[in-house]
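TA notes. Do not distribute before section.
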Amino acid sequence: MSMGAYDEDEHERRAQKTSQVDADFGEARTEFRGRLEYDSGESTEDLLDQFRKLKDGQ
């Protein structure tokens, strides 16, 4: 068979494979617990001032 030729068997195999749904993935979910904290080191006002300067400079 030449490159790019239509292969009906391969087409059918791929169609069957993609039509099957694996619904078991929900059982393997990992539950994460914990906290996330982020401190930028700057106050909200400092960040707003910086934003205003960038906005005015455009």
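Switch to the second chain here.
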Amino acid sequence: MSRSPRITPGPMAPRPRAFTLLELLVVIGIISMLAVVTVISIQRVTRDVKLSTGVNRVLGALSTARSEAIRTNNPTLLTFRIVKDLDDPSQPAQVEMVVAGFTGEIVKGDNDGIRMNASASTTDVCRFIPSAAVAPRYLPEGIMVAGPAQDIGVVDDPTGTWNFMSPGPWTPIDDDGDGRYDYYRSLEFGSTFGVLFGADGTVITRNPEAQTSASNRLYNWVDYDDLRDNNGNYLLNRSSGSGSSNTPFFQQGETNAESFINVCQFLAVYDEVKAKQDIDYTAFVGAQASLGAGDFIEFRDRILGTWLDENADRIHFNRYTGLAKVGGP
């Protein structure tokens, strides 16, 4: 009788070893760090894309303003102002880019509709109106523009000083008590500026169509509302401020204000969200309460201007053609 062959059991397969608590914690830590790095990278890319979009929109608006100057054979401004939705204060403020053409009218600073104080009789204001052929354009939320303060009247030494737009926070104002907001007022004021194109498309700093005395101060003003008083005088809706000073004419403190426009030869586009992450903006608000307008602008420039030099995208213009480009002059 044959026997079945005897089967000798082989070595037992090793049991799979479970992760220890320490190993699990290490893995979780690595995954968490990778997640944080990924989020930061996505945020940085998103921020860069938004800034790039803003720069491209500014370039597009500049090109349109230049083309409009050539088409109309007339000095044309591209200016920037802050706008907010009057029906919904929760909506963010945005930068509005407006193309405006010179009307050929020059209003004296002591005109009843202007009512400047110091040097009013020797101040000439070129009146511009928004172009009917070009709709306003808007920058992405948080993208702002700055310009050199080379023409502003409240800074003693504008060399190397930047003009900044009002960053807010914005308070809705109902002036007439009808239950609807009329405009917004900023806790921190800024300045209004723009780029002026001549009829040949080049960037200029003084309107050649303004036949005024060489000794007179010459400013530009975009008349957004076309309001006049009973005597037919154009009304410049300046920011609220001291009646004994010309400072409010150069401030952008309210969304409906029609400030004098500082003409710039280059621009800087920057991400205000990033700036507020890197810089304590509350210091500016406190300084504004204790300093005069010029001193405040120079104080803010020493901090925010230094940051701007390192983080903003510069836009310069070809001196012969007026074409804009990103980068050095």
